[in-house]
Amino acid sequence: MAGIRAQQKQKTRQAIIDAALNQLSAEQSFANLSLREVAREAGIAPTSFYRHFKDMEELGLTLVDECGLTLRQLMRSARKRFDSQTSIIKVSVETFMEFVEQNPNTFRLLLRERSGTSRAFREAVAREVEFFRLELADYLETESKLPTDVARIQADALVTITFNNGAEYLDAGEHKKRRLIEDTITQLRFIANGAAAFAKEEDPTD
Amino acid sequence: MAGIRAQQKQKTRQAIIDAALNQLSAEQSFANLSLREVAREAGIAPTSFYRHFKDMEELGLTLVDECGLTLRQLMRSARKRFDSQTSIIKVSVETFMEFVEQNPNTFRLLLRERSGTSRAFREAVAREVEFFRLELADYLETESKLPTDVARIQADALVTITFNNGAEYLDAGEHKKRRLIEDTITQLRFIANGAAAFAKEEDPTD
DNA sequence: TACTTCAGTGTACATGTGTTCGCTGAAGTT
DNA sequence: AACTTCAGCGAACACATGTACACTGAAGTA
Q1: What CATH architecture does domain A1-53 belong to?
Q2: So where are chain B's domains?
Q3: Is the pLDDT of residue A1 over 70?
Q4: ipTM, 2 decimals?
Q5: Which residue among A157, A167, A189 sits closest to B161, beta carbon to beta carbon?
Q6: Which of A30, A51, B82, B164 is the most exposed place for a label (fewest CB within 10 A)?
Q7: What is the CATH number of domain B57-202?
Q8: A33: nearest nucleotide, CA–C1' criterion
Q9: Is the pTM of this model over 0.80?
Q10: How far is CA B128 from the centre of its chain?
Q11: Which has the closest alpha carbon to B160: B114, B106, B95, B104?
Q12: What are the backbone dihedrals phi and psi of residue B19, each rounded to the nearest 5 degrees, phi first?
């Protein structure tokens, strides 16, 4: 049961996925990527595409899932392996920007489809971002001992700022990139301090 | 010199612009709007389009400019007419969300082309957002008496949060919309307080 | 009135698209 | 060895697109 058949199928499936990702760039979004272009790049006939995906939409959703997963794992490991010397905020931001730097097209996919034309895509990206928020809110609640809803609102803000500055990072020059990282860290600190002060005000006993 | 000619030309030019804006929706972005579709909606022959715009790109840039201008004027007037009873933050957020509610397609245009495929578009939107930031930073510097760079960093964060939550507002239901406004206000307060605390720390004499 | 300008038109063409259909041949099964 | 499955193929299709071109006729001009 080597499954030569299934193995080969898996291989071209991956080829299609890679082809799609490789074609993404600043000038080309998934939305205006055609089935035929993907097939060409993957080295298969246009019609063979249908053996693996019903649609370009189905392929897109697969990509979003995969990219979201990658990013989530990365951030999770960043939170785990941060040493107590450097702040968790700094580590997270640097990790995130590193990801953006090294996978610009992956990130662009999430960024663009977040406000894209297909409801399914928007929801899929929203789901990924939601994972982020929940995980971070959870972390804040237990580590910073914040009330649940303060943690949630703060987490939302942190994710929004980071994700968005990641978008700016894409088009930035070397100098601006450095400043962007610093500014992001500062902004996250503003939020963290503001939230902490707010929580204290509400419950001074803590 | 009634200029019947020029008058008529201006009229169809506006018809084209309106046609384009009317076709925008959650399911249709400017990027996948074709010249022919716009012409059809505007009630002119496809080729007549060229009498007014060199390109779809040129039309798009015009739209971005126009939309940005509208939004900017709105926010500026909001800042001016806020009565001292309600906080400037609350007024600004409510004004912004009202704009998003009433001009969803206009806002969608800015939102999407911000991370779009055309460099010219991205830069145009970035320019509009930059106006926002600068005006707000200026306001913060004079009103809250913050150091220039703290004001800038804070303004960036405020704009990012507001703009982004506006995007979520688009797809939100009635209940979520109300919560979104509240959360946005809270988040902006976090930032404002965090920034103020930071500034005080740096320069306790103030 | 004769002449020019030019917004708007209709035809035409080359190009790229998604998708249907029937075929092929190797892999898998009995 | 005989039979089935099924990933991949090429030809063909109907369709929409951007744009070139030559045209018309009303508005503007002298």
Answers
A1: Orthogonal Bundle (1.10)
A2: 1-53, 57-202
A3: no
A4: 0.92
A5: A157
A6: A51
A7: 1.10.357.10
A8: C17
A9: yes
A10: 7
A11: B114
A12: -55, -45
